[in-house]
């Protein structure tokens, strides 16, 4: 990875020669000589010669001071603007340019391909300078033919994307792509990659999210190695992966294939190497789930534990399925009740999302909440055992899942249910978020928008955030057996 911070070179212009200034200096010299001669004659022939000598010294000092002030004023005055110049006197020693204080600016991410020859990048930077665009960071992606340059720009809001794209094309850039950026993009490349690697190391479910943030706006599909019926899947990828323009395939460490697509912009070999490095890190660390849990108190006084779930909870989840009624399972899975157990391996895998489990003091699993990565979208789903419904457990799980979606910078979450499932509809309305309702193939799809910062719910784990249930305390994973 190459991360370059630009530097503006100082320009010096030759100042024109002013004959008026030379004439004034010559006149001052003759005047000084005449005054000195008159004073010398007066001192030689008059009785007050001493006083006149002191007065002449004072006059001479004043003349020298005036001449010094005059010379400094004109030698440091800015040169007059040349015809066609757009300089307004505002600049900076670093950066391509700086917008005047008080003016509005916008952040842009831009990628363009330039020819791999001296002066190509300089011409592009010059075009940005003429429109007062500040280059914050620059990353280069070498290709066999040309170089892909990725910029983070600060530009005046009056500069439209089409105009900026035309200027870049005129300066030699091609296949230019522009997208509005935000404050998250101000982190330099190495720091951002290290942060994504840390998140991946702490939680296996973070790998798809880390890949999406690493590669920008793209679609990621995780396909298992076997189907729900146990047959081998047709999807496979070699160990070294496959790069084919706007699509790459990587072998999933847990089995199967991770497919990443970005139709609007081909992937570069540099991006492919970064993505493969993250997948290799995930493979070396093996299965892992954050070891934390919350102990909540129900209104009747019983304590339950909310924690992350994974493949190790498969048998407990199957036992919960057996205790659920057919109606509860049909509201959750929208299909034949007998096939419900086949989905559990997929749902509990951290590769396809995050799962929260609710267990009693005795360790019995009574509820599951899923946050599933579905390409560009995110689905939430709940299953609460019949005997534990109508106690606020579903709303508690849903609030936590939405908080996890906010942390993952998802724009929305959706739930697929039936209009008769009043509990799920009420829980979605209880989020206090903008909701959209759609009927698709006889089912109800409720979408909650998370893109409004002022409307985003905070995580229930935040300090001071009230839980949907009366009591709560946080304990390290592994202490639930005490209760």
Would you kindly provide a brief summary of this structure?
The protein is built from twelve helices and 17 strands. It has 483 residues and is an alpha+beta fold.
CATH class of the largest domain, anyone? Alpha Beta
CATH superfamily of the largest domain: Gcn5-related N-acetyltransferase (GNAT)
Give the count of helical stretches: 12
Structural class: alpha+beta
**In order across it, which strands form the biggest sheet?**
13-12-11-10-9-17
Which helices and strands appear, and what pairs or packs with what?
Elements: H1 19-45, H2 49-75, E1 105-114, H3 120-130, E2 134-142, E3 147-156, H4 161-170, E4 174-180, H5 189-202, H6 207-215, E5 219-223, E6 242-244, E7 247-251, E8 257-261, H7 269-285, E9 292-297, E10 303-308, H8 314-323, H9 326-333, H10 344-348, E11 353-360, E12 365-374, E13 377-384, H11 393-407, E14 412-417, H12 422-429, E15 435-440, E16 443-449, E17 471-476
Summarize this structure as a short list of keywords or feature phrases:
483 residues, 17 strands, disordered N terminus, four-stranded antiparallel sheet, single chain, alpha+beta, Alpha-Beta Plaits
Molecular structure report:
Strand 6 and strand 7 form a beta hairpin. The strands form four sheets. A six-stranded antiparallel sheet has the order 13-12-11-10-9-17, with helices on both faces. The chain has a four-stranded antiparallel sheet with strand order 2-3-1-4, with helices on both faces. The protein has three domains: 105-186, ACT domain (Alpha-Beta Plaits, 2-Layer Sandwich); 189-285, no CATH class; 292-482, Aminopeptidase. It has 483 residues and is α+β, with helices and mostly antiparallel strands. It has twelve helices and 17 strands. It starts with 18 loop residues before the first helix and ends in a 7-residue tail after the last strand.
